[in-house]
Amino acid sequence: MKVLKFGGTSVGSVENLKRVTSIINRDNETKIVVCSAMSGVTDQLVRLTENIKFADTVAIAKNLDALEKKHFDLIAQLIQEETSRNLLYDKVSRIITQLFDISCQSYSNEVNSLIITSGETLLTEIFAEFLKESGCSVQLLYAKDFMYVESTDQPNINNVAQKLHEQIEDLPTATVYLTQGFVCRNREENISHLKRGGSDYTATIIGAAINASEVQIWTDIDGLHNNDPRYVENTHPIAHLTYNEAAELAYFGAKILHPQTVSPVVDREIPVLLKNTFNPDAQGTVISNAIGTMGLKAISAKDGITAIKIKSNRMLMAHGFLRRIFEVFDKFETAIDMITTSEIAISLTIDDTKNLEEIIKEIKQYAHITVQEDYSIICIVGEAVIDDKKTSKLFDILNHIPVRMISYGGSNNNISLLVEKERKIETLRFLNAKLFDAAPLISAN
Ligand SMILES: Nc1ncnc2c1ncn2[C@@H]1O[C@H](COP(=O)(O)OP(=O)(O)O)[C@@H](O)[C@H]1O
Ligand SMILES: N[C@@H](CC(=O)OP(=O)(O)O)C(=O)O
User: Fold this and answer.
1) What is catalysed by this protein (predicted)?
2) Considering every ligand atom, which ligand is closest to the CA of 180?
């Protein structure tokens, strides 16, 4: 069985849902289809949670009206059968009323999750009906009934597998099982959610749970490109990536893939295909364990990075200094991304500054610490990247852009540079020209 995931853009309009339907109906294989909310809807729901926090009743009502209208319009344009249309209007109204009721409750993590994951429910209720009208044998599965992941970092795949199996067994046999991305249940079995963009991760968790033959992620571009196409011209899709390469690129900002996507499928060696809903015949990108080409593959960038320099109060680094530093970050559950050391100082980066004040307070007791915000990590990825003849050209960047840190050696498929965020686009474009002979240098705007 395969798992197919369609992102917000793919399900964002009547026309696009028709494209998605023809992709789903291309063959008669049984499949699980995971959908995100229509593009823009999760952002709107996040705004709704802000309205609730500020008890802004006018904004809450306005927001919910707009949400209802968007989905009513979709029903009106998509669904032919009048009875089905009316049933769907009722369903959507009921969900909107539930959201209104939740908005009046006291705010909690579960309330937040219930609200921001409701876009997926609205869309799949409507889309299931449309798939039926298209002649597809479809059953709607509710992800909240089987995505008992316990921990989002280390999902309990066996638990999900068992619950999913029970849900499918309870339904009439179908060719397509349609379900929602993003929503899950936590250790306390409360409704929770994966990180933003997490429907990719839903798809691979389900893929692992059913031991799928492959997981297809359908989006609005023909695969993972060698550089960020939002900022750089002349990028190209990469035909094959190893799991390691894809994981590095996703973690370091390649937006097409949620950072945790590949982790559930690596051990099971389930391939992940990145495909374009708007050009289904394009090859796309295959992510698998197959030995691919060596050398430079792609560049990505991750924003929101804080650089921290810690200088020992003694002249030379005393034995145990690094251990003490790491223990502090560990105690405050803060992951370190990049790290470089010299004899008297250590530089590192973090992206989660929630506990930074406490970290600083503790380290200040025995070291001098400076913190600088608003950096970006530029990540250059490829198996044995250092051996690629072109790689050395990246150091030309030093003549043009102040590089705060350089890191290589943690793995042999990643070289990371730390630059000020405002120099990110310039850096991506410069490296594209230097490393891929691709684009003329364009100054950042
Ligand atoms: N390296 C990259 N390769 C391909 N797309 C990328 C890359 N970096 C950023 N993107 C952007 O990611 C977008 C797809 O984002 P995604 O969140 O997957 O969309 P959706 O979930 O709506 O399908 C593309 O349109 C593209 O602009
Ligand atoms: N709708 C959620 C989950 C998701 O994965 O969306 P998308 O596939 O459109 O990135 C979000 O916007 O975060």
Assistant:
1) L-aspartate + ATP = 4-phospho-L-aspartate + ADP
2) 2
